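Honest question from a wet-lab person: if I give you the sequences of every part of a complex, can you actually get the arrangement of the whole thing, not just the pieces? Trying it with mine:
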Amino acid sequence: MNSGIIASGLYKNYGSVCAVSNLFLNVPPGMIIGLLGPNGAGKTSTLRMLAGILKPDQGQITVCGLNISDNIFEVKKRIGFLSGDTQLYGRLTVTEVLRFFGRLNGMTGSALAGRIDELIRDFRMSDYAYRPVSSLSSGQKQRANIARTLVHDPDVLVLDEATVSLDIISSRFIMETLAAMKERGKAILFSTHIMGEAEYLCDRIALMYKGAIIDIGTVAELTGRAGATNLTDAFLTRLDDDQPTIGDGFHYDDTA
Amino acid sequence: MTIRHDMIWIIFHKEMIDTIRDRKTLLINLALPVLIWPLTAMFVSQYAAVHTIKQEAKQSRIVLIEGGGDRIRLALVDAEKIDLIPVESNEAAFSDVPRHLHQIHQARQIAAQSDTGADSPRPPLFARIEAVIRDHDVDCVVAVDERSVGAVTNSSAWILHDGTDPDSAQAARRVKNVLDTLQIAYMNERLDANGLDSAFLDPLVVHNENIAGSDKTVRDVIGRILPLILIVLVVLGGFYPAINMTAGEKEYGTLPTLLCAPVHHLELLLGKYLAILLIALVGVAINVLSLSVVTFLGLAGTSLNLSPLIVIWIFLSLVPTAMLYTALFMSVAIFANSFREGQNLLSPVTLVAVLPAYAALLPGVELNALTAVTPGFNIALLIRDVLVNPVNPEFIAIALIANLGWTAVILMVAAKIFASEQVLLSDHHGIGELLALDRDMLPYPDSRSGTVLFIVFLSGTFYLSGILLPHGIAVLIPVLQLGLFVAVPVLFARYFRMPIATVFRLRRPGMSALAGAVVLGATLFVTVNWLAALTPAPEAYKSLLTDALQLRDPSMSLPILIVLIAILPGVCEEIAFRGIMLSGYLTGFRPRYAVAITALWFACAHFNLYNFLSLLAMGFVLGYCAWRTGSIWPGVIVHVMNNGLAVFAVRHEDAITASGIVDVTGAISTPAVGVAILLNILGVGLIHMSGRPNVTDDGLVPHT
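Yes, you can. This is the full assembly:
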């Protein structure tokens, strides 16, 4: 059952530094939620916790109805995580990378081979499928990385600034892929610094600041509440306010 | 949690493919050994041969300063490859040489009779001759005072040469050969003149036979060097892959990708570990094979032939070493965030790893029960013995099991490290940050600062003791305790603006804790000494230590000794170890591990292998006191009383014997140990009952 991601009351500290504080978030299936925030707002820590890479100090996360702390491996099999930091092994070919991550996710034999062929075909990677990753261009690497994220056909996608330092063609490819995944009912959480991407892609946008979500809604709702004409102005206005709109964290329960 | 073998295999397989395509690893681990041994052997043997031929062909230029007859001159003139240079070529340099040599001879005779043992200074004449050899194309100078064969006084000849100059050394050898021949001729003439046979000079004929045979002698020599070379090769074999698969993954950004997958950290650790181990072992196997081929073909110019059985033994001996060192390297390299940082971190570790291999070079170090359990030492000695002697199978078993045990311990530590998301993911825990001196970066000591302080304490104790011990403990102990164990941590804490009272755990303890400390302090001495007796030190060592600490020195009164050996260490070492160091480790580890690490460092810093166990136990007790009460003061009481009683026991042995604590043999009596342990438990119980102070969320103990 894909019920997306439900996070409640998340906290994460690094020593005396509080990275995430009392965070609530719901990412339903078939929806793209954008996470916007300045550097150091806690976006990466949040996304890593939701992807099962970091353990929260406090709080609950369920993915596809499974509690992450009790079913970490099952949860990870249902998540595809991609960030600017997640690189591929340079000396392995694209096919070998996909096979490696497919096998780690429990895929074997013809099912894995078929899935790899499908991704190579859909992502138009046949020209470089057997070339080492280190010999690929940035755009080709990122395509291979998205294919790696999707090789086990996860129900939930978590992307952390996945388009950073990519050219417009590669960025657009990611946007289109995510839109297609949304149509297939995937729950997608997407962090970015690029307002245009967020406006283009996201059904809802969560504004994050100092470890907490300070506002969430559609672009129209956010601009309306901030009294701004565009998302950038709304974002900056909210940061100036430095106050959460609803309580300490933010409960968002929109399964519509 | 079940470890999935298929996951380990998938990671291992990926790492092997990745490594096989890495040219650097292939070059260092595979290609280099194949080439380096034959090339080195051929180069060395060919160079040696060519050099010997060239050297042999050279004429030796000799200055002869003669007096008396001319038989020596004639013998030297007739000798091959010797050219006599006239003294006039540099008359000033050779003036008065016989007189100076006579004085040197006399001075040496007087020194030999007085037997002071002191080295006599180098005569100025030698420096003058050395300059002549260096600057004037002369190889050696021969000064002769020649008498007739029948004269009462013997003839004498001095061969003045520079042993570090090959030409000079060769000239001296040639002259010596000529003079030796002449000496035999002189002797025969004397014997003939007196109607004696040459056997008259050999009333006792000594036959000193080396029954080892030349092959074993060569093995003995090689057996001392080979372990060092092989262990260096093991280290080299594991060094690069260990960094590549840990710090390298972090630097290339592939580790976060891997952590997205449903893999347990133990599976990740074991997959990588097995890959590093296999690469290191393949490297070692190629090295051993290459070396065997070189020696088999005689390329190294030795008569040593390594039999296949010995080669297999050597390789099998290296397997546990490779297991141990690769686990160690992996555990350290994972802390680095980049390849370069990994190299910086691992370089000192490799030095420490190689050091025990020097053991095989040392005379008198044998494979026994103690060395067989010491990592590094055991395998170095085992390889040496495999080459030279039949090895006791028990020691082989002990050495192999000990190495496996050490490997298991290190892998357990590695598993803890790999479970730490801060280590795997954070870019804030690099060595670079540790070395940077941002005053705001460390508001409270952490485990890294605990380790850094330990290194400072260890090296400081070593050097200060070496420098100041000759000045007596009245100088050494105050400098060591106040300067190293108090001033360094206090300055460290002040520099980083840490809360001094909290960091050093200076809070006032409760009455129950104080009572417990007094009970422990009065009785721990017995238990600690009983533990120390389990690993008894040789009497010579005990005596050396007693002398070094001036425990029986009549010039040191008991109160002064109590201050120097009980009070100062009791206070200062608690400030250092149970103060800032324990506080640091408590922020990164669970209390039991923090106490254990601190106890281990405390025992190491005493540089006393025989008392290691008892110091470790004492460190545990003191650490527990400090953690449980949040205060160093109970530990200070225990430490001061314990050391004070130790001093008292040395000064008043009779009183201790009369008390029944030790029996007539000097051993601590069993009833005394039993009572002491019960009272120790009572003391710990009282401290336990005092309860924990308020602890904030981040583990800090507030000062009250």
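Two things worth pointing out. The CA atoms of residues 27 and 33 of chain B lie 9 Å apart. The first helix of chain B runs from residue 5 to 20.
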